[in-house]
């Protein structure tokens, strides 16, 4: 399972990239709005910073303008994947973009039926929003399980991207269920790496090493 950051913040991208685990990036209009900068420049900068696929989202609501916007977004950088919403217009624009050889990510997907539609138009990625399903007292992981099973059974090649992840166990369960990609905010990434036994274990190792070297009169290695 590839790990993507869900952000438009360059510092967050650079930090996770240094860890060597950044498989790609997802953005959305809300995340770009949070940066408060010229979105054209910001899109270019984030796409250049990331080695893997970078999803940039359309904001037009009619199929024609959405298609035109998708073509423009695809020209921001070679690694761009155009995000279209799971609406009739999104399907129509998305299919046209796919027919032009562009990669699309069908976003705002909340049901297995919608995920079937995304696969049928040849989407590169489908994004079920698990956390937002949980937020309305439903079961996001159940949705992901259904989509993964259907895609396996039907042999769909569209990658399943577990989106709207809120905590480390969402990431772990998405991996267990066979998601191809998990995208998460920086804060969830930083919680993935943390474990109190790692911290206390390292503290003990360093203390013992210091004691030994003090006894030996060595500087340490
Ligand atoms: C994914 O592409 C979306 O940008 C993201 O996962 C949405 O997450 P949220 O529900 O935390 O806003």
Please explain how this structure is put together:
- With 221 residues, this protein is α/β, with parallel strands linked by helices.
- Helix content is 54%, strand content 16%.
- The protein contains 11 helices and 8 strands.
- The longest helix is centred in the C-terminal third of the chain and has 21 residues, at 196-216.
Quick overview of this protein structure:
The protein has 221 residues and is of the alpha/beta class.
Radius of gyration: 21 Å
| Uncertain spans | none
Distance between the amino and carboxyl termini: 37 Å
What's the helical proportion of residues? 40-55%
Backbone shape: globular
Beta-strand residue percentage: 15-25%
Q: Give the overall average pLDDT.
A: 97
The neighbouring-strand order within the major sheet is 1-2-3-4-5-6-7-8
Structural class: alpha/beta
The biggest beta sheet is recorded as: 8 strands, parallel, barrel
Counting DSSP H or I runs of 4 or more residues, the number of helices is 11
What small molecules does this complex bind? erythose-4-phosphate
What is the succession of H and E elements?
EHEHHEHEHEHEHHEHEHH
Q: How many runs of DSSP E, i.e. beta strands?
A: 8
Which terms summarize this structure?
single chain, 221 residues, alpha/beta, 8-stranded parallel beta barrel, 11 helices, globular, binds erythose-4-phosphate
